[in-house]
Amino acid sequence: CNMKTIITLAWRNIWRNKFRSSVIIAALTLGLLAGVSSVAFMNGMIEQRIQSVIHTELAHIQMHRQGFRDNGDFALRIQNTDQIFSYIMNRYPDVRGISKRLVINAMIASAETGSGVRVYGVEPLEETKVSDVAQKLTDGSFFGSTKKNQIVIGEKLALKLKVKVGNKLIITMQDGDKNIVSAAFKVVGIFATDNAVFDENTVYAQFDDIGHLEGIPNDEAHEIAILMAGRQNVTAVADSLALAFPQLEILDWQHLSPEAGYLVDATKQYMYIFLIIILLALGFGIINTMLMAVMERFKELGMLMSIGMKRIKVFAMIMVETLFLSLLGGFFSIIAGVALVGYFGQVGVNMSVWKEAFAELGYASIIYPYVTLDIYLEIGIMVMAIGVISAIYPAWKAIHLNPVEATHNE
């Protein structure tokens, strides 16, 4: 009785009771499909949050004077920004865009009410290369003309201040000499991102307007934002820039937004824990099924051992049967998962019913699930492992039969 014979016997054995084998394969398929779908949904949700952090709120890398992020000190500005721009663009081909920003905490007021905000003074053309806020406008434009004192505000802030495009707002802030300065700005655009907190607290104005109001030279800025072509080389570029400009604090998006960095680190851990729990639950079902199969075949197994089939081969046959069941369930779940995730990855899962709740947490309400190939491979490996583990006890029971007693068992 060679290995080929054992494999043939194992395959035939699992189909001797088609209903029972079909039920366990279906249970494995549905259980693993639920796990794959949940992982894909979580991946899509987290990836969209990370994309929002990078492309809307922060960019891949930011540069500041040391201490600026701690207290927002108006005087801590980066000098010679034009030279820094030239250095970065000439040295790092992966850089897609650079934008300098003035960042000032201010009060903004309408005829109805007021609110505290963070004002970003930006050069519109350069800002569109590092931020997608201009693509998220619900009304107006992202500084469509060269007129002075224009602002673009978030939709939630517009609702709070009860203003719309064309209305004027008063921005009040401190200048470098600690004097209070104010100016009227016209709302020219309103944006809505996936982050309600960002929309309520963020205002964009033109760099020259804020610089003139605050008395800041054109080649100075509080912040330089850098967007890369992808996330692969971000850390290496940030480290290289830190060496080139030791007087500046240079951080990538994971350090600028620790919660987003944590999501990246924790996603796979949660995925493995979730899938292992599902597989353990399914493993008990496999054990139960194979134990029933062994109990029903006491006499048959006893006869096989009586005519000379070695216990190790009986053990191998039960192991192969269990592995077949596991692999079939895993195969069908992966096929179904690829189809399901592929479909919803294109059309999205619409969670608009909870749009406001999602926005408060900074997440999109339409989720595009996805699963990478390596996750499918890992699921396949885990299915094989749980199949082998689940087979051990039923196979152990089988080889500890007494052949004489088993052949007389009815």
Question: What does it look like?
Answer:
By secondary structure, the protein is α+β, with helices and mostly antiparallel strands. It is 57% helix and 19% strand. It has 16 helices and twelve strands. The protein has helices at 3-14, 18-58, 68-71, 81-91, 124-127, 155-161, 196-201, 207-214, 234-244, 253-256, 258-296, 298-306, 311-347, 355-361, 373-399, 403-407, and strands at 61-65, 95-109, 114-122, 137-140, 150-154, 168-174, 180-191, 202-206, 223-228, 248-252, 349-350, 366-367. The strands form two sheets. Strands 2-3-8-5-7-6 form a six-stranded mixed barrel. β6 (168-174) and β7 form a beta hairpin. α2 packs antiparallel against α11 and α11 packs parallel to α15 (373-399). The longest helix has 41 residues, at 18-58. The model has no long low-confidence stretch (mean pLDDT 87).
Compact summary:
With 410 residues, this protein is α+β, with helices and mostly antiparallel strands.
- What is the average per-residue confidence, as pLDDT, rounded to a whole number? 87
Q: Which stretches of 5+ consecutive residues score pLDDT under 50?
A: none
What is the rounded Rg? 31 Å
State the total count of DSSP E strands: 12
Main sheet makeup: 6 strands, mixed, barrel
Choose one word for the global shape: elongated
Series of secondary-structure elements, N-terminal to C-terminal:
HHEHHEEHEEHEEHEHEHEHHHHEHEHH
Distance between the first and last residues' Cα: 26 Å
Strand order of the largest sheet: 2-3-8-5-7-6
Overall structural class, as computed from helix and strand content, comes to alpha+beta
Measured by DSSP, the beta-strand proportion falls in: 15-25%
Instruction: Note the total helix count.
Output: 16
The helicity comes to 55-70%
